[in-house]
Structure formats: structure tokens, C-alpha cells
Specification:
Two copies of one chain form a homodimer. The longest helix of chain A is centred in the last third of the chain and has 15 residues, at 139-153. Chain A has helices at residues 4-13, 31-39, 52-64, 110-122, 139-153, and strands at 21-24, 44-49, 71-75, 89-95, 124-134, 160-167, 175-181. With 183 residues, the first copy, chain A, is α/β, with parallel strands linked by helices.
Amino acid sequence: MKTILTVAKDLLVQGIREDSIVADFTMGNGNDTLFLSSLVPKGHVYAFDIQPQALENTQKRLKEHGAPENVSLILDSHHNLERYIPGGIDAGMFNLGYLPHGDPSLTTRRETSLPAVQKAVERLNPRGVVVVVVYPGHEEGRLEGEALQEMAKGFDPEVYDATVFRIVNIPHCPYVVAVERRR
Amino acid sequence: MKTILTVAKDLLVQGIREDSIVADFTMGNGNDTLFLSSLVPKGHVYAFDIQPQALENTQKRLKEHGAPENVSLILDSHHNLERYIPGGIDAGMFNLGYLPHGDPSLTTRRETSLPAVQKAVERLNPRGVVVVVVYPGHEEGRLEGEALQEMAKGFDPEVYDATVFRIVNIPHCPYVVAVERRR
């Protein structure tokens, strides 16, 4: 079966065109930033992280791969997205938890990640998708995921499809919450 | 976003080859039986229903579409599958609830549908998938789905991936429970 990250990427790309405006709300080491940059050569990627190391790693990675100059690297929390993104977005990616190989105490937290997801969903253009990967293997991740699912249940079904993809017999396995704006 | 039935079919086909042994555990009007028949020209489809009308409709449909003679139509409950299927299966489909345009009082029931899913999962060949579409819009369907999800959580994670795909902001929307045998 597809891995959860493959499911996440498949969902993410469906609303993306070459001139799309997209966001990587959890830059980390820049994997998703690079992926998104390659998909929108005539568009733009906004990438957020609160750790300077993330911006440094990502800038290096983009340069190494000859990425087009379509990325804004933003040293701020994703819940301040309205300070940087002027209009709507066609796709937004949240890979919650902590930076791989980074400080595990520096994890995303409900207080900021949930408002960020809410704002990102409100910014979606028609057919756009916000994809969130949740890591319930650590306690904050577990609680973050539960709160996120509760929030997802509340999105107006006339406008959004909020879908959960979860391997239920592996409780600690990452899972996906995806919100698509239908119109 | 893909509809739930598209998700279900995409999951179902991944373990199927032209010589696969597969099962439609809820024949109904034969839609899935016909679909499966076309995928396994050198294999076999076992199709179950307890309503004679379902077998009649399905036989007619298979004939109309010139389906290969690779289908056994079985007038019995899916929870008696071991009486008819001699060995392993590569895919099994359950589309729970009642026959479209049929008698809504004749719905699948937990007492038989859950043992049937359990037996189907135990029959899976490596890489095989059992896909269950649940209809929580009627009370028995809601309870059937909850019990099924509880059962799914118990499948050995060393052997199976049990995945739930659900649109969480539309409580009555059909959803998918898929169980893949990994090895």
C-alpha cells in the first residue's frame, strides 16, 4: 500500500498548476519546499520555519538542486501567514512534529499549528488542498492530531471535504488530514 | 478530490493480476462483479448475495457486457465463504448496506458482515487487499462501521495494514476500511 507520505503528496499536487501559489508551512530540511518549487516554475512557494537552521538547510538544498527562484524563505511561525501571503493559495503542506535530526523538544504545538491550519484552509482557492501529516508517536503530536480532527469535523461541508487517512492498527503511525476546497 | 468509491477501487486493484482469485462479497446489482471479472480474465471471481434478485441482475449484466466466464454466482451469505472459496484470495470487496433500489430493510448486518470480513482477511494472499465501503447514513450501517473499525485496530500490524479513509466533516458520508496483507 502507498506510504502515508505518498498519500500526502498525491493529495497535495492535485490542485497545483505551474503558476500556482503554494506554501510549505513546516519547512524543516526543505524536502517539501524543493518538491513544491519544482511543481510551480511560474508560481511561488512560501516556506515557513521558526528555526534559522531550517532556512539555512533549505536554502542550501534549493541551490544544490538548481531550484527556480520562486521561493520565499520566512523565519516566522506559520500562524502568522497573513503577514507574508497576500492572497489565496492552491496548496499548503504541514508536516507536523519536530525537525528530523533536530531538537525533539522544538515540536509544532497545537496553540500555533491549529490556528495556522485554520488560516491556511481559509486562504484556499477553489480546488486547493491543505495537507497535514500528523505524528501521534509523541504525546504533543497525539494531542495535536486529535484536536486537528475535531477542527476538521467542523469545516463547512458545502465548501470543504475534510478527509482523514489513517492506518488504524498501528497507533503510532503518522496519518494524514487533508482539507480540499470544493468550490 | 477522488470520491470514496474511486478510492475503494484504486485500493482494490493494486493486488490484482490477470490470473487472480478475487471475491465480490456483496454482489448487489453486479457492478463490482463485472468490474472484477474484467480484471481477472485468467482468474476467477466469487460473488455472494443472499437475494435471488441480485444473482439474476448480475447474471444479466455480465451477459450484456460479454464478460468472460470466470464468475461464480453464489446464493449464500458472505460469512459462509469457506464453503465456496477453496484457497487464498488476492482481493475482496464489501459494499455494505442494502441493495440500491432494493428493500432497505434487507441490509448487511454486523453479526454476519464482521465475521465475513474477518474470514476474508484471513484468506488474503500476500499483497492482497480487502476493501470495505461503509454507509453510516443508516443506523445499522453506523454501528457496523464502528464495530468494523474496532476490529480493524486489532489486525496484527506485522502482517496487515488496516487503513481508514473518511471524510470527517460529512458524518453520513460513506467511508472506506481497507486491509492489506503486507507479506
